[in-house]
Write a structure and sequence with these properties.
globular, 15 helices, alpha+beta, single chain, five-stranded antiparallel sheet
Length: about 525
């Protein structure tokens, strides 16, 4: 634990909202009560998970050295922070980034925390979150305060809650979108965070937004709730709404979401989502975690019966001004250009630029501006790279950045004329790798590196494949070059192997008296 923790409390207290400050203070008290044995370990495990504080591999205090199991020595002895989870064993902290939207100050705070409390690396997940690994439990309240002062939270990033609400990373600049889904994703995320009707689930709920149905950027069909932007002319006026889906999911038993409403009016987005939360909490499985997702409730009831129950709950809800208040300012999440739009022409391009431009640059519907993808191998970015990226975001865009479900990051509203200078700046911090969106851009969960459930080394396989494929990528046929590979360390599909052209997931087999990790392959 860091001795400086107590000083940080006073430094940032005024920059945190009252509600979040009280929440963190309460969690700090609960940590001390658990240390004294006054809170049951199972109860404490759930309360820390709801704050984004996760266990990770080897948190039982034991490690096999290849010959026998060795017991690791920890200062707090047998004290546990959850069943089989030793108190002093390092853990993971997950940080929610709604729709992947961040600013430069948040990047710099992440860099500081990664250096001071972790191993100097922050990890982007397939839900546009950030994770810090090898974190001590007793440091987490201070980390939460420092994050809260920068406007981000770990609250309900794990546990039986509504997880991070994701959205297409080019929403608002996409050439084919119906409209920008960003403010809707932001509003729903804020509305459901800590909402009393979203606290009694048997398992997690995942929500995603997409600006169009033609591209799979939002992956809406594999979510508990998926919303695709659509418009419809009603009484001569164009109205916004959503093609609304319920009951998707991957995991060991993947389900494609069912159509709930072909046109859900925008003013019904929040109340219908609230009603779905109530129905899931009321009728969803609670005892068997393996079947405690909305997809199994849809299978059990059928989409028609589920829709009927949701609409009944919706009819009985007490009207809430928050349902539509955000519609009065849909520009609250808008990003604006920092520099004038000028087209790239004339200067000689540096080595590697042309290949990078081909794969990592998206031409926005706003002429003269592009979105640049920063490819992060395995989703990792160092503290120094976070600071360097923040500096580039201040120089070339209006200090905004987004994470992606492919574990990358994007800079939007880059003037085309700045592309060469930006490329050189990214090279200086070793973030100018080409191949975003190609076969080289492999998605991977943490696997056996840090996950307790991991069976095989998904990061090991992904890293090796990336190196070998990168060597051949320039000579590949276009059809092969744009295949997508996703890798999971087990059948739970955190690496989303079910929705890849080539999917790998970890399994084990018994060979010669040993349990040996393997990968199974899914095609198409």
């Amino acid at each position: 634990m860091k001795k400086s923790n107590a000083r940080w409390r006073e430094q940032v207290v005024d920059a945190i909202s009252d509600g979040l400050r009280d929440e963190i203070d309460q969690f700090e008290t609960e940590i001390e009560l658990r240390r004294q044995g006054k809170i049951d370990e199972k109860v404490f495990a759930e309360t820390r998970l709801r704050r984004g504080v996760y266990g990770q591999r080897y948190d039982n205090g034991q490690r096999h050295d290849g010959v026998k199991t060795q017991t690791l020595s920890y200062p707090s002895g047998d004290l546990v922070k959850g069943p089989g989870t030793v108190w002093d064993a390092p853990g993971m902290l997950r940080i929610k980034i709604p729709f992947g939207g961040m600013n430069t100050r948040q990047l710099e705070v992440l860099a500081e925390l990664a250096e001071e409390y972790s191993e100097g690396i922050a990890h982007v997940t397939t839900r546009q979150d950030f994770q810090l690994h090898f974190i001590h439990l007793e440091d987490t309240p201070t980390i939460m305060r420092r994050l809260g002062a920068a406007g981000i939270t770990t609250r309900e990033a794990c546990g039986n809650s509504v997880r991070n609400v994701t959205a297409c990373p080019i929403a608002g600049v996409c050439q084919g979108e119906a409209f920008d889904v960003t403010p809707y994703a932001h509003a729903l995320s804020q509305f459901l965070l800590g909402h009393p009707d979203a606290q009694d689930f048997g398992r997690k709920v995942k929500i995603a937004f997409s600006g169009c149905r033609e591209e799979a950027c939002g992956l809406t069909n594999m979510h508990d709730i998926g919303a695709i932007a659509v418009t419809r002319v009603i009484d001569g006026e164009e109205k916004r709404g959503f093609e609304f889906y319920v009951g998707g999911g991957l995991g060991a038993v993947p389900f494609q979401a069912k159509l709930f409403d072909e046109f859900l009016p925008e003013e019904e987005l929040l109340p219908i989502s609230q009603a779905i939360a109530i129905v899931f909490a009321k009728y969803g499985e609670k005892r068997n975690r393996a079947r405690a997702r909305i997809k199994f409730l849809v299978k059990k009831l059928g989409i028609d019966e589920l829709r009927k129950r949701v609409l009944e709950e919706r009819a009985g809800l007490t009207p809430d001004p928050a349902w539509t208040a955000y519609l009065n300012d849909l520009h609250i999440t808008d990003e604006t250009p920092f520099r004038f739009a000028h087209f790239l022409n004339g200067p000689t391009t540096p080595e590697g630029f042309d290949g990078w431009q081909e794969t990592n640059v998206y031409y926005q519907r706003q002429g003269g501006y592009v979105t640049v993808t920063i490819a992060l191998p395995l989703g990792d970015i160092t503290a120094d790279q976070l600071r360097g990226l923040a500096d580039l975001a201040r120089k070339y865009v209006n200090e905004t950045i987004r994470t992606t479900v492919e574990q990358n990051m994007v800079l939007r509203w880059v003037s085309e004329a700045d592309l060469i200078d930006l490329y050189n700046g990214l090279k200086d911090i070793e973030l100018a790798e080409a191949g975003a969106g190609t076969i080289v851009d492999i998605t991977s969960c943490p696997g056996t590196d840090t996950c307790k459930l991991g069976i095989a080394s998904s990061r090991g396989l992904s890293g090796e494949m990336r190196i070998r494929l990168a060597e051949k990528s320039m000579r590949m046929d276009e059809a092969i070059k744009h295949l997508r590979i996703k890798v999971s360390g087990c059948f739970n599909s955190c690496g989303q192997h079910h929705v890849a052209d080539l999917g790998f997931y970890g399994v084990s087999r018994h060979i010669g008296g040993y349990t040996v990790p393997h990968f199974q392959v899914i095609l198409g």
